[in-house]
Here is the input.
Amino acid sequence: MAQLHNRVSNKELKQKLYEETFERTTISFYKYFPIPDPAKFRDEMYQALNAMQVFGRIYIATEGINAQISVPTHLFEAFKTYLFSIQPLEGIRLNKAVNDNGKSFWVLKIKVRDKVVADGIEDPNFSMENKGKYVNAEQMNALLASPDTIVIDMRNHYEFEVGHFDNAIEIPSDTFRDQLPMAAEMMQPHKDKNIIMYCTGGIRCEKASAYMLHEGFKNVFHLEGGVIHYANEIKAAGLESKFKGKNFVFDHRLGERITDDIVSNCHQCGQPCDLHTNCANEGCHLLFIQCEACARAMQGCCSDKCVVIIQLPEAEQKAIRSGIKNGNKIFKKGKSDVLTFKNNEQSQAIDIEKEPTPNTQYPTPNTQHPTSKNSKTKKTFIGKGTHFFPKASVGQFLIEENEIKIGDKILIKGSTTGNQEMIISQMFVNDLEANKAVVGDICTFKLPFRIRLSDKLYKLDA
Here is the structure.
């Protein structure tokens, strides 16, 4: 009987991967096309790819296929011949990884799903046959230079955080199914604009472009092949990259560097950093951004609690994590309560100067890190952003603590916004022009930059 599933442990598979003497090429591809019998399609593909030692992750549904894989480089042409022999996939674009060490995957997993991208669309009249216009890298750059263009990022928060196109709008939702109606709602005032949608490899933005057309938008585009194909195109053509920072990828690498720009911060100390990692505590495994200094100080962990746990004997660690199912919660969109800088930015920081030693006495869980004493300016927390505006010049905040008034110097702080200071010269409180805003008020004022949801507002006192 033909083998249809892997039967070797991950530990052995990883070891075999690093013992390989040949190179691998990491690629991704997708295609929306009808598959009447996904289970049969899946089993036939597994047998063919397993025989060629292909590793990676492939999803198959009645609506099509989505794949991220690594192929032995010496068998790449044989792989293409097989793939192109499947009539709907003949000549399909294969996105090659930007920064590829060949160690992206160590096992082949092909799964049948209801949809290759969970979208929450239930309207029977929705069709992928009517989708937005493809744009290549050169066209993307040209459209981005136009004031009549709005560019929308259809990826998750933790992807957007480490890299994005200039002036891209993040759709502030935790799932793609929620992003679709939110994007349509946010763009209602801009139906006459050119709307470009992009994602990692093209599959999400292609569906999003079809959804926007279904919702009545006219000038809808989507970036062909996503950020991966864009990066390869600009490199080949010698074009300027309008995408800044890293492109997050869902394999062992956790990111491909597109430009040298660092657009995010360490979630523990706040220093510029875009290195994603998973917490070293196997029972947590939270995905977050951690600089090298914090990685040493926290031994690769996201919190004091996890540092304590990894010091325990393995048997005790297994007992603690027994029955825990983190699922997609490990991503948490960089918003876990344990991340010091990310969620408690009022001058709390880890002491990153001290290297941990075998005799270090770690703090008990939930012990807070000492407050920094280097700040010369006192900042008082006021509130958080409550509305995401597509263009710069307006910010809206809910006043949660204290108060602000005309003439106050304020700080608006966020992972993407950075640290922006200004003096309030005019503001509207609950839609009326006013001199002061207090707890419970919705405060709106002009800004020379664009805010994001959950950006924090502080009042600065010398």
Q: What stands out?
A: DSSP finds twelve helices and 25 strands in the chain. The chain has a mean pLDDT of 82. The CA atoms of residues 184 and 376 lie 44 Å apart.
